Amino acid sequence: MRLPVAFHNSENYGTLIGEPVQFGRPFFGRSEEYESVIPKVRKSYNELLEKSKRNLKEALDDFLKEVSSYAIVGYDFILCLSKDLGKEPMEIVKVLLSSIYIKDRLSYIKQNLKKKKENPLEYAESFGELVSLLGTRNAYNLLRKNGIKISDTTLNYLYKVSMMPSSVKALIESRKLLLTVAFELPMENIEEAAEKVVGLSFNEARKILKQFQE
Q1: pLDDT digits (tens, 9 = 90+) for 112-139
Q2: Category of 21 on φ-ψ map: left (φ > 0), alpha (ψ -120 to 50) or beta
Q3: pLDDT per residue over 95-118, tens digit each?
Q4: Taking the CB of the first residue and of the last residue of the chain, which one, N or C, has fewer CB atoms within 10 A?
Q5: In DSSP terms, which residues pair with 8 in a beta bridge?
Q6: Integer Cα distance of 165 and 212 in angstroms
Q7: Could you read off the pLDDT of 36-66 as tens digits, one per residue?
C-alpha cells in the first residue's frame, strides 16, 4: 500500500515534502503513517539529488524503486526536481520515460491486464502512479503506445482508487472490498460508504451506494 506524497518548492526553504490535503483536511492516511513515510521519501530524494550529479537516469531509477513500496509521487515531484537540478521539467520526463522502473511498471500492467488480479491494489496503484507523474492524457497515450488498451473511464477509476484513504485501500488489498465496487465509492464519504459495502457483490453494493448520491 502506498501513500500519495506532496512536493513543494519554497523560495526560503527549498523543496518541502509532506502530506497532501484533500477536502481541506488530511485524507489519504493516518498521521502516524505519514510520520513513517515522509522521512524515508525525504532521505531518498536527497540521495537522488546527489546521485543525479553522476547519472540522472540511474538516480531516478533508484529513487522510484525505493519509494514505490510506500509512496506515490506526482508531477509536483518532477517540478521540484527540475528546479533543484536546474533542468526543464520535460527533460526530467524524457529521462523518466526511458527508465527501467517505468518499463517494468508497464510490463507488470501488461501482464496483469486481462488476468484475475493477484493484488488488485498494486494493479490500481501502478496506473495511478503513471497518471500522477504524467497526467491522465499523457499516461493514456503512454499505455496505448505500449499496447495496453484501456478506456479513459477505467484509467480514471484506477487513479481514483490509488488516491483513496489507506483504510479503504486496506479493504481492497485484503479482498474484503472488490476493486469494481471501489470504483463506485463517493470520495467525500468514502470510509463510511466502504464499510457499508464490505463483502458485497458489485450489484449489491451499487444498491446501497445509491443513498450516498441522494
Answers
A1: 987 777 899 999 999 999 999 999 999 9
A2: beta
A3: 999 999 999 999 999 999 877 778
A4: C
A5: 16
A6: 18
A7: 999 999 999 999 999 999 999 999 999 999 9
Spatial distance between the Cα atoms of 83 and 66, rounded to a whole number of angstroms = 22
pTM of the model: 0.93
Do residues 14 and 80 touch, judged by C-beta distance below 8 A? no
Q: Do residues 74 and 125 lie in contact, with contact meaning Cβ atoms separated by under 8 Å?
A: no
Q: Where are the domains of the chain?
A: 1-98
